[in-house]
UniProtKB/TrEMBL annotation:
Gene3D superfamilies: Aspartate Aminotransferase, domain 1, Type I PLP-dependent aspartate aminotransferase-like (Major domain). Catalyzes the cleavage of L-kynurenine (L-Kyn) and L-3-hydroxykynurenine (L-3OHKyn) into anthranilic acid (AA) and 3-hydroxyanthranilic acid (3-OHAA), respectively. It comes from the Bacteria. Belongs to the kynureninase family. It comes from Agromyces atrinae. Keywords: Aminotransferase, Hydrolase, Pyridine nucleotide biosynthesis, Pyridoxal phosphate, Transferase. It catalyses: L-kynurenine + H2O = anthranilate + L-alanine + H(+); 3-hydroxy-L-kynurenine + H2O = 3-hydroxyanthranilate + L-alanine + H(+). PANTHER family: KYNURENINASE (PTHR14084:SF0). This is Kynureninase. One of its GO terms (molecular function) is pyridoxal phosphate binding. Pathway: Amino-acid degradation; L-kynurenine degradation; L-alanine and anthranilate from L-kynurenine: step 1/1; Cofactor biosynthesis; NAD(+) biosynthesis; quinolinate from L-kynurenine: step 2/3. Its cofactor is pyridoxal 5'-phosphate.
């Protein structure tokens, strides 16, 4: 039986080797205690897998940028450092969290735009007999919508994998779906709804054995679970930066293109920043060598500043330690759910085996939409996903066990009061 006392949560926090890093996040120290917290700081924040808290250092970084770079250097900043930021930060991210050697990761554009670019480039490079794109029906809507559009543009067919929404795509399902007609497979390492953690290396091997390319969506995994793109021989990957990377609302996404594919894939949105000589302003498009060819327009410099602090923190702490804390947090949430919520009819809609689960858990009950609305009004912030799912995203570096205890108690009390 789980110790459901708040004292037990305090003991877990006291034993947590990453607890000291929590104070580096703006507002996180006020969560739970709500004593000297900034105005509006929630009692419990369960949505770090949708929008992470900012680091206090990022607030300082952005203010200094406005004053000391944009404000004083003005357009000279492009020549001095801004032009290279997408690649500098991309390399930092690849090294700290993606298992990617330099020159393969770039920051820029939204997740949707980068998905389109890389998926369209991949299918255009496939042979004339490969006219099928494989995707699961529970993949994030953007992924599915982008692929529907590409299939229509290129006269291709989508082959859907049906999955359990409380689990995720298995290697066996992928093996049954791919064949000589497959051009591209698009899957998420961590399922946005259930938190299922896919077997990336095994599935990548299966796709390659069929002669196809694979693109992995890392939106719900980068910064929370180990990723080793080079070692796994992944072809392409895309991910957002405003979840576990704390880049801020709408911060630009990242794209990974394995080095040997960079000269063979032609990205479809040909912009001036992706040319061999950006300022030549030539009469025709000549793509740059390497990863630069996968950018299009002017880099969103201000939007990519905040993630630099989180990337540095991930490298300082190590993704292995972050993963260990993530597992401990989700295991604790599931244990409290078993004691407090299961008797109220709540079911777990996520894998119960930590080895098959990413950084969030989903709890299912017909009343969860209303429960979520009431919790938000009471400064407890989870999110809701159909069908009937209360999703609890626990960002390892900024979430305490006491915060989990307070939030789970609030879920119990709110559900009981309905």
């Amino acid at each position: 039986m789980t110790d459901t006392s708040r004292d037990h949560a305090a003991r877990l926090d006291a034993a947590d080797p990453l607890a000291s890093h929590r104070s580096r996040f703006f507002g996180a120290d006020g969560a739970g205690a709500a004593l000297d917290a900034p105005a509006g700081t929630p009692l419990a924040y369960f949505d770090g897998n949708s929008l992470g808290r900012p680091l206090s250092a990022s607030i300082t970084r952005i203010e200094l940028f406005l004053r000391e770079q944009w404000g004083t250097r003005l357009i000279r900043g492009w020549d001095e450092q801004w032009m290279e930021l997408p690649f500098v930060i991309g390399d930092d991210l690849g090294r700290a969290a993606l298992g990617a050697a330099a020159g393969q990761t770039v920051i820029g554009d939204s997740t949707t735009v980068l998905l389109y670019k890389l998926c369209r480039a991949a299918v255009d490079a496939a042979g004339p007999d490969r006219r099928v794109i494989v995707v699961d029906r529970d993949n994030f809507p953007t992924d599915r919508y982008v692929l529907e559009g590409i299939a229509a543009e290129r006269g291709m067919t989508l082959r859907w994998i049906d999955v359990d929404t409380s689990a995720g795509v298995t290697a066996e399902q992928v093996e049954a779906a791919v064949g000589d007609d497959t051009a591209l497979v698009v899957l998420s390492q961590v399922a946005y709804r259930s938190g299922h953690l896919a077997d990336v290396p095994r599935i990548t091997e299966i796709v390659h054995a069929a002669g196809a390319l694979v693109l992995w969506d890392l939106c719900h995994s980068a910064g929370a679970v180990p990723v080793d793109l080079d070692a796994w021989n992944v072809d392409l990957a895309v991910g957002c930066t405003y979840k576990y990377l704390n880049g801020g609302p709408g911060s630009p996404a990242f794209a990974y293109v394995r080095r040997d594919l960079q000269q063979t894939l032609a990205q479809p949105i040909q912009g001036w920043m992706g040319t061999a000589d950006v300022f030549a302003m030539g009469p025709e498009y000549t793509p740059a060598a390497g990863i630069r060819r996968f950018i299009s327009g002017t880099p969103p410099v201000v939007g990519m500043l905040a993630m630099r602090d989180t990337i540095a923190l991930i490298e300082e702490v190590g993704i292995t330690a972050i993963r260990e804390k993530s597992i401990a947090l989700t295991e604790y949430a599931l244990a409290l759910s078993a004691e407090w919520l299961a008797p109220l009819g709540v079911e777990v809609a996520s894998p119960t085996d930590a080895a098959e689960r990413g950084g969030h858990v989903t709890l299912s009950h017909p009343a969860m939409r209303e429960v979520t609305a009431r919790l938000w009004a009471d400064d407890v912030i989870p999110d809701y996903r159909d069908p009937h799912g209360l999703r609890i995203g626990l960002s390892p570096l900024s979430t305490s066990f006491d915060e989990v205890w307070l939030g789970m108690r609030a879920v119990r009390d709110t559900l009981t009061a309905l």
